[in-house]
Amino acid sequence: MNLDKLIPTINDVVFSEEILHSDDEIQKLKQAGTTASVSYLIVIASAIGISLYRLLPPTKEFCSKFRVIEEHYQQLYTREPVSAVNVYISSHQFHGTNGIPFIIAGGMRGLIEIFSYDFDFKIQEIQSIEPPMSSAPVTHIISRPPQADYEGLIIVGHGGLDPTLNNDFIEQIDPKPMIRFFKTSFGIGHQSCQELDQSFEGRPDSNVIKGRIISISSAVDGIDYILCVALDSTYMEKDAKDGLELAIFKIENAQNISLICWENISILCNLLPVLDIDAPIRYAKCEILLPNRTVLFDPNIKSQCELFYDLKPSFTEWFDDAEFRKYTPYSAITFSAIRSRRNQLDGELIFDMLLRFVNIEPESYPPPDTEALKILFDEIFKSNDIDMLRKHCLVYYLLKDWQAFSKRYQKYATRFLIPPNFLCLMDGYWALDHCQFAEAIRFLTEPTVTVDWDIKVMQVLLKNVGPYDALKYANLNNIQETSPENIEIYMEILLHCDICEALLFQVHKLNILLNTVMDENERAILNKYCEIEDQETRKHFLIIYNIHHGNIVESIKENELLKRRGESIGSGTVSTHMRNKYIGSIMETLPPMQLKEISMEIDKALSHDE
Hints:
Layout: E1 10-15, E2 19-20, H1 23-31, E3 38-46, E4 49-56, E5 67-74, E6 82-89, E7 101-107, E8 112-118, E9 122-129, E10 138-148, E11 151-158, E12 178-185, E13 192-200, E14 208-221, E15 224-235, E16 243-252, E17 256-264, E18 276-278, E19 286-289, E20 294-297, H2 315-318, H3 321-327, H4 332-344, H5 350-357, H6 370-382, H7 388-400, H8 408-415, H9 420-433, H10 437-444, H11 454-464, H12 467-476, H13 484-497, H14 499-514, H15 520-531, H16 536-548, H17 552-565, H18 574-587, H19 592-609
Antiparallel strand pairs: 1-3, 2-3, 3-4, 4-5, 6-7, 7-8, 8-9, 10-11, 11-12, 12-13, 14-15, 15-16, 16-17, 18-19, 19-20
Helix pairs in contact: 7-8, 7-9, 9-10, 11-12, 11-13, 12-13, 13-14, 15-16, 16-17, 17-18, 17-19
C-alpha cells in the first residue's frame, strides 16, 4: 500500500472486524498460492473517493505482516469527496462466512451511499440516501450490529468539518450539526436502509445557527443502545448556552429513540476542547477526554463539577505506607544491587540522568523509606523544568520498581494517559538500569521512541553485552547519522565487530565530506582545521579535496609544501606515492611561468616557517 499521494486528502479511515472466508474463497486463495481463513478490510475516505484494501493477517508459514490481496476504488455517484466511512458486517451467515461486509460512505455535500463487497462481485452500490436540506458534510458514521433478525442500526452525524483539518473543498457557511438514525436490513434478497422519523438538528426547542459534531460513541445495554454525542454549537437565542454540549440517547429495538439529556458542558470541561467521549452502560457516567485530564458527566446530576482524574496524583493512593513496608523494593539487598548496577553502568543510571535533568539530586534514588519517597515524589511535581507528562513518566518509573505487586504502574499509565511511545521509552530506561539488556534494546528501538542519551545506551551495551548488540541498537536507531560523538562511538563498535565494515564506514563519511560544496567561509574553516595541527592526514585530505573541486594550483602548493617540510606520517604509503605521482602529472601540463610563480609562493611560505 503506497499512500504517499493519498495521505493529504484522507478524511477518515476504518479497519473492519475479521471476515470469515467461505469454502469457495479459501479454495481461490489456495489456487493463488496462499491460504487464510479470515481477512480484514481497510477503507479510506478521501477527496478522490473510497479506497478499499483487503488484507490477509500475518501467519508463521507465509508472512510476518499483513498482505494486501485486493485493492479497489469507488466514487460516490455525485463525485463529491468522501468525508466519512464505516464498515457494517451483516448478520446473515453465508456459506460459512460470518456475514457480508457493507460499506457506508458519506460525502462532503451530505450524500450517503451504501455498497456491498465480496470476492466475486467486488464493490456494488446498494442504495443512495439524499442529503438533508442543509447539505452539511457527513462527519461521523456509527454502525451497530443487529440485535434481532437481520435488523441493525446506523447513526450518521452531519455538521461543520474539524477546523484542524486542511480541507478547502467546501466553503459552506454555518453548517448545522444534525444526528440521523437509520434501521438496516442487510441480507440476501432484502438489502435496505430506512431512515427513522426522528432526527435532531441542534438542541430540541432551540434554533441552532451552526456547529459541528466532535465525537459519537455508543454502547450496548442489553438489547438496546446508549448513544453519546459531543457537539460544539451556536444558537440563535440570546439566552441559549453556546459551546460544548453532550447529548445522550437511548435507542430501543433499533427504532424507538428517546433523549435522556442534552446539556452544555463548557464549565465541566473548563473551556478546554473535547477530544473524545466514551458512552456509559446502564446510565452510568459518560467519560469525556480533555487534553490534560478526563472528566465524568452524570446524566442524573444537573450540576456537573466532578473531576475524574486530577492533574497531580495522590501520593497515598499510589504509594500506600502499609504496602510500602510489606512490598518495598528498596530493601538493604536492593540498595546494594542498585549501587552495583550504578558502578556497572559507569557510575550513573539513566534514572540518575533524568533526575539531574529536573535539578533533583540522583542521591534521592533509591529512597530508604516512605518519607524519603514522598520527598522525591513532591520534588518531581514541584519542578518547573519539565511538563506534566514527563513528571508522570518519572513516577511511572518508580512504580515499575514494584514488579511483584499488582502491576500498579500499568494502572498509573492508563489513569494519566501516558502515550505508548513514552511508555516504551521508560520501559527501556528501566530495563537498562536493571541490566535487562535484551528488553532494553526491544523497547528503545521502537520506531516511535526517541532516546535522549544514545551514547550512554551504546556505551552500556558495548561494555556489558558486547559489540554486536550495541551495533544492533545503533543500526535500528540510525545512530551513525546524528552527531560527531555518536559517529565516534559507532566507529568504536564497528572496530569491535568488523574491521572491514569500520573502514568502509570511514570511507563513506570521507566521501560525503569530499563531495560537499562549500562557500568561501566554509572553505576557510576547513583550511584552518586541516592546518591547525601538524597532521599529514588532514593535509592529505585538503589536497585531495582541492583536486576534487578543481582547485589545481592550491592542491599543487599544498602538496609541495608537505613534501618540502617532510612527511613523517604515512610518507611511504601507497596513497602518498599515488598523490605525488598524480600531482606531478598535473604539473607537467602547466606552463613554465605558472610553475615558477607557484614555486616562488612556496618559497615565501617556507621562509615564514624559519
